[in-house]
Specification:
Enzyme class: transferase
CATH topology of the largest domain: Alpha-Beta Plaits
Helix content: 40-55%
Largest sheet: 5 strands, antiparallel
InterPro entries: DNA/RNA_pol_sf, DNA_pol_Y-fam_lit_finger_sf, DNA_pol_Y-fam_little_finger, DNA_polymerase-Y, DNApol_IV, Rev_trsase/Diguanyl_cyclase, UmuC
Radius of gyration: 24 Å
Domain UmuC: 1-175
Order of helices and strands: HEEHHEHEEHEHEHHHHHEHEEHEEHH
Strand content: 15-25%
CATH class of the largest domain: Alpha Beta
GO biological process, one term: error-prone translesion synthesis
CATH architecture of the largest domain: 2-Layer Sandwich
Number of helices: 15
EC number: 2.7.7.7
Number of domains: 3
CATH superfamily of the largest domain: Reverse transcriptase/Diguanylate cyclase domain
């Protein structure tokens, strides 16, 4: 999707049309997580300081991020694609996916891509760019070249004219740190990398995948398959204190409470539970440190997880100021994985109430019954910008921070 976060905000608020927009929180340390295409044309990029952008763009409009809105729109787009065009779909990130569509010729592929592009714009009002090729790598490279709101098809004969003059940092999968190492070996462009013959040097950069990387660049790596319906490895949330570092205990516990509410809501909304819990603290050096605990019983219960989180916090916190907090639940499985039944006429204690709720939900195949305390928690945790939060469709990283839009 093109400038996805900005496009979602424009969809939600038509008054933002034709404005110079950056998505960021209003803190002195804030950076832009997304921006309108007009700002990109002016040379700005995601990750730039909001203060710097403001100093150069007087009519800049800074919009607070609404991640639940972006999740909801992404959910609608991916469902539309799956139900209308292809059920072979790999969700790559919040605003990117791969579709497998068989086409008898290039004209059919281009026509189909135009149908997809027009349908997303018409049904959901989000612009997108589409890259077409015979490998995921080349399709992604083609999409980057097609932005904004274009369609590009890449065959083997197109690789050199389309990509060979690109700087290595513009190659999909190569970040700035890798680019610096490549530059040190006099590799500055896509062409340089393809034609580089020092295999030991390439292995020192890419490890055992060096040959695969070069084959992908040449268009020879064509046996990749889409990863369909990959389950999240963990669910978490983090908070960075943007105004100043915090050492006040009550403030930190309040922040931890909000983080656990978010994590618990995400677990419950996806019918997931876990038994590995990780607390993360970001110190003054901006480094994340963590402590982990594994328990026997799987859970997605707020009170249980909050208790574990506080235990980890007090065992790990050195009573000094910290810059951020994070919490993650992993080793996940669905709440319906356990196979047991109960007698509804057993003595009803708290654990029996949980069992009754589980049994009914298990038989219905979805979570329709819940305790009043859980319902109240969900109402507090639900996003205020939209009516409901739909399930996540992409893997979350160690702190569930949404990847900056490129």
């Amino acid at each position: 999707m093109d400038s996805f976060f900005v496009s979602c905000e424009k969809k939600n608020n038509p008054n933002l049309q034709n404005k110079l927009i950056a998505i960021a929180k209003e803190y002195k340390r804030s950076i832009a997580s997304s921006m309108s295409s007009e700002l990109k044309k002016m040379g700005f990029k995601a990750g730039d300081s909001i203060q710097i952008i403001k100093s150069k763009v007087k009519n800049l409009v800074v919009v607070e991020p609404h991640y639940e809105l972006y999740t909801s729109v992404a959910h609608d787009i991916f469902n539309l694609l799956k139900n209308t065009f292809s059920n072979v779909i790999e969700i790559y990130s919040i605003d990117e996916c791969f579709l497998e569509i068989f086409a008898q010729d290039d004209n059919f592929a281009l026509k189909r891509a135009k149908e997809i592009q027009d349908t997303i714009l018409e049904k959901i009002n989000i612009p997108c760019s589409i890259g077409i090729s015979y490998s995921k790598f080349l399709a992604k490279m083609s999409t980057n070249k097609a932005k904004p709101h274009g369609i590009i098809l890449t065959n083997r004969k197109d690789i050199e004219p389309y990509f060979y003059d690109l700087k290595v940092e513009k190659i999909f999968g190569i970040g700035n740190n890798t680019a610096i190492k490549l530059n040190a070996g006099n590799i500055f462009t896509y062409r340089d990398l393809v034609n580089f013959n020092n295999k030991p040097f390439l292995r020192s950069i890419f490890g055992k995948n060096a040959e695969k990387v070069i084959n992908e660049l040449k268009g020879d790596q064509v046996n990749d398959k889409l990863i369909i319906n990959a389950d999240p490895q963990g669910i978490g949330n983090s908070m960075t204190f943007m105004e100043m570092d915090i050492e006040n205990e009550s403030q930190l516990i309040k922040s931890l409470e909000e983080i656990i509410k978010t994590v618990t809501y995400r677990l419950q909304s996806q019918n997931l539970q876990g038994n590995v819990f990780c607390l993360q603290i970001r110190n003054n050096d901006k480094k994340w440190e963590s402590i982990q605990k594994k328990v026997q019983k799987y859970t997605n219960d707020y009170a249980t997880i909050y208790k574990i989180a506080k235990e980890l916090f007090y065992s790990f916190w050195k009573e000094d100021s910290i810059r951020g907090l994070g919490f993650r639940v992993s080793n996940l499985k669905t709440i319906f994985d356990e196979n047991y039944s109960i007698d509804l006429f057993d003595n009803v204690k708290e654990d029996k109430i949980e069992d009754i709720i589980f049994s009914i939900n298990y038989k219905l195949g979805k979570q329709v019954l819940k305790k009043g305390s859980q319902f109240i928690l969900e109402q507090k945790a639900k996003p205020k910008s939209i009516k409901f939060l739909k399930e996540d469709y992409w893997k979350e990283n160690a702190t569930n921070e949404i990847k900056k839009e490129k």
